Amino acid sequence: MNAKSQPTCYACDELAITKEHAPPRSFFPPVHRSKLITVPSCARHNNDNSQDIEYARNVISTYYGVNSAGQGLFLDKAMRSFDHSPALLKTTFSDIRPVTIQGATCGAFTVDVERIETVMRACVSALHFHLKGEKRFDWEIVLASLQHGSVPSDALDAWSGLLSIFQQIPFTVKPTNAPDVFELATGDIQGGLVYGLRFYKSFLVYAFAAEEHGCSNSFPLR
User: Fold this and answer.
1) Can you tell me the distance from the alpha carbon of 24 to that of 184, in angstroms, rounded to the nearest whole number?
2) DSSP string, 99-137
3) CA separation for the pair 148, 108 (Å, rounded)
């Protein structure tokens, strides 16, 4: 394959010499790693944000209500990463405190939203490239499952209104090889594109960007 026919990275114009997984491969337990979505990548973007990816995976897999795939990943990969890096453990759970949810005692802690948004923005950019063949990086990320802890109290009404809009959008579910780990949906609003991502049947993320070339059609992730 000559340089002219070799694909470029999904995130830049460098030649692709490897593949990037979307979502990151470490989000998938070993038994769910068959036929994952990949996009062409340069070496830099294949390893970009690796520490943020580890952090995001660990936080998402602790989210209340995740299924057995998420719980198993936390007990395996996340716990091992904490064993290898006490600093990561301290950073992640620096202010953990007990809370009660539906009669069960759980731990609550402050999440670094920006780090998770960085991972999700890269993930959505890769998924969009996989589906549309377009390089787009201007995604606004909405971590719907973290709304109560990450939104200032004076902005909660506006935030709830935004989520209500997302919930009313007609979405189309896209097939994924490991739906217990990751579900993907696409939707359209007037003048924009929307993606819905759900991890471990519980942790919900929306991403949207202005549509440059018109809209298509597409389901509420509930």
Assistant:
1) 14
2) EEETTEEEEE----HHHHHHHHHHHHHHHHHHHH-----
3) 12
Preceding peptide of 40 cis, ω within 30°: no
Q: E-assigned strands of 16-135?
A: 18-21, 38-41, 97-101, 104-108
Does residue 46 come out as left (phi exceeding 0), alpha (psi in the -120 to 50 range) or beta? alpha
d(CA 62, CA 73): 9
User: Mind listing the pLDDT tens digit of every residue in the chain (222 residues)?
Assistant: 444 578 999 999 999 999 999 999 999 999 999 999 999 999 989 877 889 999 999 999 999 999 999 999 999 999 999 998 898 899 899 999 998 888 888 888 999 999 999 999 999 999 999 999 999 999 999 999 986 555 666 667 777 777 888 888 889 999 999 999 999 999 877 778 899 999 999 999 999 998 765 444 333 333
Q: What pTM does this model have?
A: 0.87
Strand partners, 104: 101
- As given in the structure block, the two tokens for residue 139 are 């995604």
Of 192, 186, 194, 62, nearest to 141 by C-alpha is 194
